[in-house]
Amino acid sequence: MNQSSTGRILLVEDEASIADVVTTALRYNGHNVCHVSGGLQGLEQGTNEDYDLIILDVMLPGIDGFEVCQRLRDADRFVPVLFLTARSEPDDRIKGFLAGGDDYLPKPFSIDELVLRVAAILRRTGRGAASELLRVADLTIDSAGHDVRRAGASIELSPTEFRLLHYMMANAGIVLSKTQILANVWDYDYEGSENVVELYIGYLRRKIDDGQPALIHTKRGAGYVLRDAQA
Ligand code: CA
Fold this sequence. Notes:
By secondary structure, this protein is of the alpha/beta class. The protein has 8 helices and 11 strands.
């Protein structure tokens, strides 16, 4: 039985010393690591190969990490992305999430923290996790298979959308505040960024409730709740 999940990881980092330390530590922890140093190489590698996670430096030669992530998402590559950056301004964090990133680690970081973050992302994106099927009305989510269905039809979600839906389904019937959602889905307790929650609720609604009885409901001034209106 494999206790900590291991994965295929693409590291896009132009600083050789950081790349060496990260690669060594991840391999030591059982991960399979591929390293490239440029944005375009990262994009090409991430588009053509199947990874469980991409660790993406923001400041890169060629195109920057945000752009790499955005272009991967545009190409329907929904592999989880962990950004590394020397800049830690809140605006950059939000920009990272809006570009479709899943987590964000400001430099300098401790290698132990990086290894823990990687394990957490692999776990919560269902890579290597035990199967768990949640159901609300005709909506089902299978965390291990990263599979979401409404009335039997498969729905494609980004990793952040998937995590948000999983959190709401695990708490079905409970009104969740934006602060709660931010803390549980994004791991960050940052201020002034509740618009990110609104944005992602909007994405989810378009994918989950499109042309069907709504399962995601807004409780004005309180937050959001996922429940079967018929029940
Ligand atoms: Ca860099």
